[in-house]
Amino acid sequence: MRSLVRASLNARLxxxxxxxxxxxxxxxxxxxxxxxxxxxxxxxxxxxxxKEKPRSFPIDGFPIIEAxxxxxxxxxxxxxxxxxxPVHIGETFQDRYQVCSKLxxxxxxxxWLARDxxxxxxxxxxxxxxxxxxxxxxxxxxxxxxxxxxDHPGRENIRRIHDSFTVTGPDGRHIVLVxxxxxxxxxxxxxxxxxxxxxxxxxxxxxxxxxxxxxxxxTECKAxxxxxxxxxxxxxxxxxxxxxxxxxxxxxxxxxxxxxxxSNERTIYLSRAVLPEEGPLRLSDFGEARIGPGxxxxxxxxxxxxxxxxVLEVPWSYPVDIxxxxxxxxxxxxxxSLFSAxxxxxxxxxxAHLAELTxxxxxxxxxxxxxxxxxxxxxxxxxxxxxxxxxxxxxxTLESLEGQMDLPLAFVRFMRRTLTWMPxxxxxxxxxxxxxxxxx
Length: 440
Hints:
Layout: H1 4-8, H2 11-14, E1 92-93, E2 97-105, E3 109-116, E4 121-128, H3 137-144, E5 161-169, E6 172-179, E7 182-185, H4 186-191, H5 200-221, E8 223-224, E9 233-236, H6 242-254, E10 259-261, E11 267-269, E12 281-283, E13 290-291, H7 308-311, H8 319-333, H9 348-361, H10 366-369, H11 373-376, H12 409-418, H13 429-432, H14 436-439
Antiparallel strand pairs: 1-2, 2-3, 3-4, 4-6, 5-6, 7-9, 8-13, 9-12, 10-11
Helix pairs in contact: 5-8, 8-12
Keywords: ATP-binding, Kinase, Nucleotide-binding, Serine/threonine-protein kinase, Transferase
InterPro entries: Kinase-like_dom_sf, Prot_kinase_dom, SRPK
GO molecular function: ATP binding; protein serine/threonine kinase activity
């Protein structure tokens, strides 16, 4: 199978990349041979007897972001500075990992490129926020470790971990994962394109590798990801390609990243993106993953990606990941958001979300209403007719996607296999890998 970017990130797409910082360089290549991952209580990075010396990074000569301009994680609606460990470029953790540059940020963590002074290679440090509930990621990696020697192709689409440790900041303890350094996420890549969509052929390649990862998680690891979207799909390279990341480190010496000094101890840096060339897609961010098939009976999934069974408060399992595959496909193809209810709307959110589901998918079948009749009766009558608790939005059904951006009927049929009211009627990842639209 052709790799994600070898198949479709051609010169035309690469020429469309914009809004990059100085020093952003391609860093993406197919591993020459399969690697076997095995998590142990100690670091899996190669031990050596000597250690490189830390570098002294510039203390001036960088662009300053004005105090009234929100930067990176400050843009989150629920941002609180005390939750984030104040990482500084040049800082060394564990007398081993020296931070070289910032790679990304999110609602629960920041990610940094670091040089392993002992292992003489580059790694990514994912620093979780203080008191994070996303500490499930480390137990998840411990759970799947024994499966990473499998011959299942999907294991190559799971982001690797090397080590972990804790660090104490001004406001408490933070968990740090040491992972293979990734390139740009598909969300960020799309944001940097002139086009508003990826080519259809590229999306098929992306979905194929995503479905391989999910089939591996569901069938061999017995785990549910619950957080599938483009921001958690990364382009990664073989971590032996030190020269690629050394250019990022060197760029911090010659063209330091823009930053916003917040206080004597806290600085917010702008992230650097690493653009891909060739290589495998990696599914990442397992902080919300559930170990075991379930079924589970508590809320999960980001809004508005939430599957209907979770909104109806009925047990859920692997099919919630398949629901997100369909939504991710639309996102990557530039289709207008199918479900866009505002997650800040409080109690009105589930009403708005279910109204959108009803408009797009049609009335729910009786079997779905029977999963939780008391809850369902708040929204639909006995025949599945919407009660107009909020107006149904004026949008077409899934079939209206045919022809949009030249998408064929085969794509609509693919979507109908992922977005179903009944979880039991959704195709499995293995089934979708043989879908005619993907195979065409």
